[in-house]
Amino acid sequence: MSERTTAAVPPAAPELTGTGDLGLFGPGSVTWRVHSEPVLWVAGVRSLFLQALHPRAIAGVVQNSSYKVEPWSRLLRTADYVGTVIFGTTQQAAAAGRRIRGIHARMRGVDPRSGETFRIDEPELLRWVHVTEVESFVSTARRAGLELTDADVDGYYTEQRRAAELVGLDPSTVPGTRAEVAAYYRRLRPQLALTREALDTLFFLMAPPLPWHLGLTPARLVYTGLAATAFALQPGWARRVYGTLGLPTTDLSASVSVRGLRLATRLLPERFQHGPIYRDAMARVAARSAES
C-alpha cells in the first residue's frame, strides 16, 4: 500500500460553542458507538502488545518514559487523552492534541540497531501507534459483541483520521478502511521483531505492580487473566512474532472471554462504566436536545 490512501478524509466536525459543541465526532458517529463500550480498556492493553513489536517505536518509549515506575498514572493519562479526543469538546480535543504534539516534539530516541538518533514524532512512528490503537479498539469492540457492519468499521477508521491529525499526521497518509489497515499491517510486518525491549514489555504488561496494595490479593489473578485475554486478542501473526501459537482456537477463546467481560462490565453501576469526560458529553447532548 502506498502512503497515500484512497478513502476520503471526513470533513472536520463543525466547531461549535457552549452546549452545542459535541466535539470531533458526535452521537451519530461510529466512534461514539465504539468508545461507549467500557470493555475497551482491554483494547488499550492489546494495542500496547502490538506497539511493542516495532523496534524503533518501543525503543522510543523505553528511552523516554518511566512507565515501569508509574504505569497506572501513565495509563490514566493516556485514557484521559483518548477520552478527551473522543468525547471532549472541539476546543478540548484541539488543546489535548497541542499538548501531545509539544511533548513529542521535544523527545528523541536512539535506534538500538543502527545507533541513529530519531524523533519520537516521526510520521512512521505516529502512524504505527495510531493504527494499532484504533484497530485494537474497533476489533475488540466487535469481538466483544458490539454489532458493527464492515461499512461501520470502515467508517470508524475514516473518522479516526481526525484523531490522527491531532497528533501531527497528514490524514491522507493514514489508513482509512479495513482494507487499508490490513495492507498497512502487511507492509509493516517485515519490520516487526521480538526485541529485548518488546519481550521486557510483554513480561511487564502481564505482571505490573498493582496499585492500592492489591498485588497479593485475588486482583492479581484477575488482572493476569485480563492481560492474557488482551494478548490473545492480537492477530495470529502478532502472536507468532512473540513466539506463541496463532491458532483459531486461541482466537475463539479470546472472543468468548472478551464477550463475557463485556457482559460483566455492563452490570456495573454507571459511575464505574464511564468517566467524567463521557458523562459531560452526554450532558451536552441532552442540553442540545432540550434546546431544539
Can you tell me about this structure?
This protein is mainly α and 292 residues long. It has one domain. 61% of the residues lie in helices and 2% in strands. It is built from 15 helices and two strands. A two-stranded antiparallel sheet has the order 1-2.
What would a concise description of this structure say?
The chain is mostly helical and 292 residues long. It has one domain (18-282). It has helices at residues 30-35, 40-51, 55-64, 71-87, 90-105, 123-143, 150-159, 161-166, 178-188, 196-206, 219-232, 236-241, 248-265, 270-273, 276-291, and strands at residues 108-110, 117-119.
SSE inventory with pairings:
Elements: H1 30-35, H2 40-51, H3 55-64, H4 71-87, H5 90-105, E1 108-110, E2 117-119, H6 123-143, H7 150-159, H8 161-166, H9 178-188, H10 196-206, H11 219-232, H12 236-241, H13 248-265, H14 270-273, H15 276-291
Antiparallel strand pairs: 1-2
Helix pairs in contact: 2-6, 2-11, 4-5, 4-15
Give the key terms:
single chain; 292 residues; mainly alpha; two-stranded antiparallel ribbon; 15 helices; 2 strands; disordered N terminus; MPAB/Lcp_cat_dom; oxidoreductase activity
